[in-house]
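Hi P.,

Sorry for the delay on this. The queue was packed all week, but I finally got your sequence through. Input first:
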Amino acid sequence: MLDIKFIIDNRSIVEKAIKDKLTEPVDIGLIEKLYLQRKELRQKLDTLNAEKKKAAQERNISEGQRIKQEISGLTEQLPSVEKELVTLVSKIPNLPSADTPVGTSESDNRVLRTWGKPRKFDFEPKPHWDLGTDLDLIDIQHGAEVSGARFAYLKGDLVRMQFALLHFAFDVLGDVDVLSRVAKAARIDIPITPFVPVLPPVFMRTAVMNRMARLHPMDDRYVFEKDDLVLVGSAEHTLGPLHMDEILEEKDMPKRYVGYSTAFRREAGAAGKDTRGILRTHQFDKIEIETFTIPERSFQEQDFIIAVQEYLMQKLELPHQVVLKCTMDQGTPNSRGIDIETWIPTQDKYRETHSADLMTSYQSRRLNTRVRRSDGTIEHVHMNDATVFAMGRMLLAILENYQQKSGAVAVPKVLVPYMGKEHIGDA
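Then the structure:
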């Protein structure tokens, strides 16, 4: 969430962010009224507690009882004021970065750069679901019979390729020399440290996901009310609270993590979209980055993460474009959102495969994750999260871009050492 004092002092800026992000209107006048009411209640309680202490020292029993009753009444009022105030403030989205385009649809997103040229086939390329069926790599029929629509079995060499992608990504993200070269090539001057591998939980408490500002829309979450738990929609959801209610030391920053987990989404708003294949499923595996930095380095941190994403994609030799998302296409907690879209031959267009989101202090304020600076001052950290590989989308991109006339699929050169073969199926 945003700082309440900032909201009150910068009303026009905040109202513009609400408008540009097309989020629910919020009464900032009411926020100011509740903020002042809370401040007054707290001041009165502080004064009364001091008077109560004095009455006790003077053994003035009647005065002490009167003060106690007054304190009780104010104490009952404070939680309701606090709850209403926090509820309203939580509805206000993060402020978009200065370079974020204002827009009302994905068509207002801005392509920053492209890499690679889409392949020209001398045969009619097959969609990934046909390739997967022909090579016995994707079994959608049994997935539907066992689990329902938008589920699939991955089999054989496609499973091996998924773990090849995992090993490749972890090797890069753990190699300081490679990361340093990536940063240098992108002209980014920040401390380079390896990303710590994490296998995070896939369940989390609903209250914690709410503190991450990721619980809503609830229709897209698998919620277990009896246990007060929700399944994650990405590894970032449980990586983000890793330092909840902690104070980190500046000398230990940045903190960088790379997590691998299964993710779950209802895809409630995707009825009729991408119903075939594995582009949009209810269950999928992802490698995700989460980092914690000092505020003045968070923008560069995002650029560094994007440079790493691009390096991985270039090594896989997959044509792609880097896109700056407009205000409408950002999430509520995002300040700056960058997507990588990969070329899908049979759709004749680029499709989103990666995201990189700068949250500034929006999530850390809700999570109470702070940093003690070298001068002793304490402030909220800035947070970034990003996709390394959304496995289903990467596998389908490789299948379609690397398919051969013979019906086989070539293995990207960078993955050959991990898989021990150059083709899936007959070359």
